[in-house]
Design a protein that fits this description.
The protein has about 625 residues and is of the alpha+beta class. It contains 22 helices and 22 strands. Strands 2-1-5-4-3 form a five-stranded antiparallel sheet. The protein has a five-stranded antiparallel sheet with strand order 7-6-10-9-8. Strand 13 and strand 14 form a beta hairpin. It binds adenosine-5'-diphosphate.
């Protein structure tokens, strides 16, 4: 606002007038002017039209003007807050009273500053002027703004936290209050933050009477030692409901001697209830787990480490709890680590939850087990809960059943063969006997002595054939797998005695038998004798008439068994008959070519089976055969 220039001429009136003042008044004026100039507040005097008629240095500095510049201005030029039309009213309002208010002043460079004005109307020589002192409060406002924002943030954060976030202050006189309490205090103590901002006693009234003393003592101890305050206590609501609270805060000593805590209080009624229910539940499961008759293991699904075991597991595996919990499942399961991991992956992905394993127990024994595995998550660890059943007896029984079934099948097969031999092979010699006896009977006196003797020889031959058949069959039926009959047999001596028994045949056939060094083995001596007798007997029998017989008996040791062979240079066997020769009554020749019953090699096979071994033949047809057999060590 432009004001009339005469005003400046009129303003020094005060000072001109001073010339007329007495010395005392002069001194007073000087003091006033000194005070004006040394004041840090921006002092400005305004007449009732708003013109600035006097300023101090601090005011000039605050607005960036020189004194002469500023004295040409009015309040309308520098006030940037109140609308121009409002200002006269504000100035008028100040007459006869003082007021403190905030506004914005515009500096010479156009920037705005926040100022707090303390204005009073002073009448001097009958003229009313406004004496105003101003303070730059820009930084105070900034700080206030930051504080408000910070409080706003704190309130926002506190509202997300269950319970109340608080500042609690204990004054030196023992009274206390909550300088800050988040909105959560309404739920915790059923009071508003305002209710307790000056006095905390309403909160203490809420505390359950039996716990009050404890709370006070804990606060005092925390104040005395400046140690964190952590306390669980009960509050009683108006309706009688009792809730459990947990408070946690850190104290600090203030300059005025009071103690200020920063912390939070939460309602833990439900958590405690859930905790106790959970622990009751886990106790129940623990008991169930421990006392269950089934073997149970908890295994870390990733590492395979055994994490927990029940009492049945200790009995079954023969380890102490500590030992077992230090083992990995790979120390127990007989599969290799890779295979175990694969099986565990199947269980974790729930593709399979039933397994058959072999588990090694503490004394080295291997047990057949059936395992049911279920994946579970516990404390963030993926585990396999495995229930183990010992099925060793079942597996043993199943094996026995299998053996007996095989035996039964074999016996059945043998019975069939008996039926066959009874109907065919035994019938054939019987028919011969019958036929020749019929001839002798019908011809009677007309029969010459020579012819009768010839018929009787035929009969004798047929009877002998029947006898060998019956003997062979009897021997076959007697072979069993009873290991009790096993003794240590020196096979060298056995072969010497066989050579003795066969000496006549060997000599007649001009045969040579070469025998390598043979071992001493555990076997059924009678059966082993029978075996060699049959193989060497066949080697002596199945040869070309014009050929010198060479037989070789040898031995080779393998890791699991004793392997023998009987080799000849006889007629040999065609490849397609390699298996057939071991079938009962299966003969490759007629009785006229080579006499026999067809039982010998079937008998050998049965003897070898009783010794858990194998028998087979290799042959170059027409050049000779080698029969190999093994006897399990
Ligand atoms: P058998 O000698 O009483 O006829 P075997 O069971 O001992 O009955 O032999 C079955 C068949 O195997 C014989 O009929 C014969 O054809 C053949 N065989 C057995 N041993 C030999 C051998 N060393 N060389 C050639 N053929 C053989």
């Amino acid at each position: 606002m432009k004001r009339d220039d005469n005003y400046l001429d009129a303003s020094p009136d005060i000072f001109d007038a001073s010339k007329k003042f007495s010395k005392k008044e002069d001194l007073l004026l000087k003091r006033y002017q000194t005070l004006l100039q040394i004041s840090n507040d921006g002092i400005h005097v305004i007449d009732k039209e708003g013109n600035i008629i006097e300023v101090n240095n601090a005011f000039c500095k605050m607005l960036g003007y020189t004194e002469s510049e500023i004295l040409k201005l009015s309040l309308f030029d520098i006030d940037a807050y109140f609308a121009n039309e409002k200002l006269p009213k504000i100035i008028a309002n100040l007459v006869d009273k003082s007021e403190i208010f905030q506004t914005k002043y515009r500096r010479k460079d156009g920037s705005l500053i926040d100022v707090e004005i303390n204005a009073s109307c002073v009448s001097f020589d009958g003229v009313n002027n406004i004496y105003a002192s101003s303070i730059d409060i820009t930084s105070r406002i900034k700080v206030n703004k930051i504080q408000t924002e910070a409080l706003d943030h704190l309130n926002k954060i506190a509202s997300r936290i269950p319970g109340v976030v608080f500042q609690y202050a204990l004054r030196p006189d023992g009274s206390s209050f909550f300088p800050y309490a988040s909105e959560g205090v309404r739920e915790i103590y059923h009071v508003s933050p305002e209710d307790i901002i000056n006095d905390a006693s309403v909160v203490f009234n809420r505390i359950y009477k039996d716990d009050l003393e404890g709370v006070i003592q804990s606060i005092n101890a925390s104040a005395k030692n400046l140690s964190p305050w952590q306390y669980e206590y009960r509050v009683e609501d108006e309706d009688g409901t009792i809730r459990l609270l947990y408070g946690n805060s850190i104290p600090q000593k203030e300059q005025d001697g009071s103690i200020l805590w920063h912390g939070f209080i939460t309602d833990i009624t439900m958590t405690k209830k859930a905790e106790s229910q959970l622990s009751e539940l886990s106790n129940r499961y623990r008991k169930l787990f421990d006392s269950h008759s089934s073997v149970m293991l908890l295994i870390d699904a990733e590492s395979g480490n055994i994490l927990d075991v029940n009492i049945s597991a200790l009995h079954f595996y023969g380890y102490s709890k500590e030992q077992l919990k230090n083992l990995n499942i790979a120390d127990i399961n007989c599969l290799n680590k890779k295979a175990i991991q694969h099986e565990m992956d199947l269980a974790v992905s729930e593709k399979r939850n039933f397994f058959m394993f072999k588990h090694k127990i503490a004394n080295g024994e291997i047990k057949d087990v059936e395992v049911h595995s279920t994946p579970i998550m516990f404390n963030g660890i993926r585990m396999l809960f495995s229930v183990i059943h010992d099925i060793s007896d079942r597996v043993k029984n199943e094996k026995l059943v299998k053996v007996y079934t095989e035996k039964l099948q074999r016996v059945n097969g043998d019975l069939d063969s008996f039926a066959y031999v009874a109907s065919h092979d035994l019938k054939a010699p019987l028919n011969v006997v019958n036929g020749f006896l019929g001839l002798i009977h019908s011809k009677k006196e007309s029969l010459s002595n020579e012819t009768r003797d010839e018929y009787l020889r035929y009969i004798q031959g047929a009877v002998n054939q029947m006898k060998s058949l019956i003997n062979d069959l009897l021997q076959f039926s007697r072979i069993g797998g009873n290991k009790d009959s096993f003794v240590m047999v020196d096979v060298n001596l056995l072969l010497l005695s066989i050579q003795d028994v066969l000496s006549e045949t060997i000599q007649q056939n001009k045969a040579t038998i070469a025998i390598q060094a043979l071992p001493i083995i555990s076997a059924n001596k009678t059966l082993l004798n029978e075996l060699f007798m049959n193989l060497i007997g066949n080697a002596l029998k199945y040869h070309k008439s014009d050929q010198e017989i060479l037989i070789e008996v040898g031995y080779q040791e393998t890791t699991e068994s004793h392997q023998f062979f009987v080799k000849d240079n006889g007629i040999g066997i065609a490849t397609e008959n390699f298996d057939k020769v071991f079938v009962m009554f299966r003969r490759l020749h007629t009785q006229t070519e080579f006499q026999g019953t067809g039982i010998g090699l079937a008998l050998c096979k049965r003897i070898i089976e009783a010794h858990d071994g194998k028998i087979w033949v290799e042959s170059d047809f027409g050049k000779g055969s080698t029969f190999y057999f093994t006897i399990k060590k």
